[in-house]
Amino acid sequence: MERQPGMEFLKDVWRTRDPFILGLEGTALIIFLSVTLRMGVGRLLGHAKTTYHHSARTISLQRRKDAETVSLQDLCKSITPPCHLNPFLFNGHLQTAWTVVKHDSVPIYYKRHIFEHEDPSYAGTYTVDFAVQPYEGSDPTLPPRTTYYTSSEFSSLSSQDTKPMLVVLHGLSGGSHELYLRHALAPLLTPDEKGTVRWEACVINARGCAMSKLTSSVFFSARATWDTRQTISWLRQTFPNRPLFGIGFSLGANILTNYLGEEGAGCELKAAMVLSNPWNLEVSSLALQRTSIGLHVYSRSMGTNMKKLFESHVEQISKNPRIDVEKIRGLRYLYEFDSEVQGAAWGYPTVGAYYRDASSSDSLLAIRIPFFALHARDDPIAVDEALPRNEIEQTPYGVLCTTSLGGHLSWFELGGGRWFAKVVRIPLLSTVGVTC
To answer: Less Cβ crowding at N or C end of the chain, within 10 Å?
Structure first.
């Protein structure tokens, strides 16, 4: 084994038995050096290692402006900046926990429209929040900076413009108001030096989320792609000249990946990006149950959030004959909720059957548009062992970028910014003028 100079130094310090060195200062030095050696200097400074996974030969892309051809893998690597994160948040637990503490002001304004699903198989309503310029007014029944479109406003949305438009899917029990989502949208929606906003964006709220009314007897699920499909079809008809892009976060990343696979070569999106996708839901769930912090912190916290969502719609969802309200009120963990609510309501015999059917790791093999996946290897929720590395290496349409640090939907930099906001901005801007 190669000898570590730092470890030899520690041994020398101990052998000296110098009272001063072995005092408080020496103890602090030894602890610091021990942590440094264990973590590595780069990790201690917040410098995350970036690794790419892709097929030996990815698709070639041609830029419309200069006709330059570039491979998808080279494009993704060239436009992803070095990952330098907050050194005080030096592991996935600290990064993820900081999302609860950090409350930046990232004001994104929305106008909401309620869509009635056109397919009777998926009857019910869902809401879409469209990013708009700041306005006066509020609605106490909706999240901050969100109001409804009036009928006349919504009917006049149709446009022949060619502005790129981003379709966003949020994480579990979230919505357009989530801070991680607003961090990603802000750079795209900020006016340039001429006062021009070059992007449009909308967020598809999962049924029952973001203070939307549930009008069916089932919640959203990890396999529920139909609201996304209807929304994108509507966007294509309403804005026929706009290039459409997709981005999904966490559970929304799983749903978006499933949608991309189902659509295949007929997908209306030009390119897509997914962040912190759990990929294999059964593997991720079992990993959470394997450790105390996974079970009693993460799984329990997500289970509590879903129970709150359940209680806010209990009158409607209790109409489903498969739902046992009192039993659900006694649950504690996410996998229990998924078994007694999601699995039961959607007709799955077991929670494992639901997880296996809803997982997106196999769906990526059917994707036929450029897609870029971003993942932190120390993510304590969407765990590293669930990543479909072998699958991503079998398709020329995708690139997976993993970072050694970052947590779940976190990637906090020193100063409070989020590294992934830079990554989202650059790849999407780079592919606006690109055709396969």
So the answer is: N
DSSP 3-state helix, strand, coil percentages of the chain (rounded to 5)? 40, 15, 40
**What does the alpha-carbon distance between residue 325 and residue 327 come to, in Å, rounded to a whole number?**
5
Given a contact cutoff of 8 angstroms between Cβ atoms, the answer to whether 289 and 295 are in contact is yes
Spot the catalytic one: 250, 276, 285, 299. Answer: 250
- What is the span of the domain harbouring residue 407? 50-280+359-435
- The pLDDT tens digits for 109-161 are 999 999 999 998 899 999 999 999 999 999 999 999 999 999 999 999 999 99
Q: CB within 8 A of 260, min separation 6: which ones?
A: 246, 267, 269, 272, 363, 364, 366, 367, 369, 371
User: How far is residue 299's CA from residue 288's CA, in Å, rounded to a whole number?
Assistant: 7
| 8 A C-beta contact, residue 125 and residue 215 | yes
What is the three-class DSSP state of 293? helix
Placement of tokens 């830029």 in the chain:
63
In a domain, 223, yes or no: yes
Is residue 138 part of the annotated active site? The answer reads: no
Q: Is 177 among the catalytic positions?
A: no
Reported pTM:
0.89
Q: Exactly one of 183, 338, 408, 410 is catalytic; which is it?
A: 408
Count: domains in the chain: 3
Query: What pLDDT was estimated at residue 435?
Result: 65
Q: Catalytic: 379?
A: yes
Among candidate residues 227, 338, 378, 379, the one labeled active-site is 379
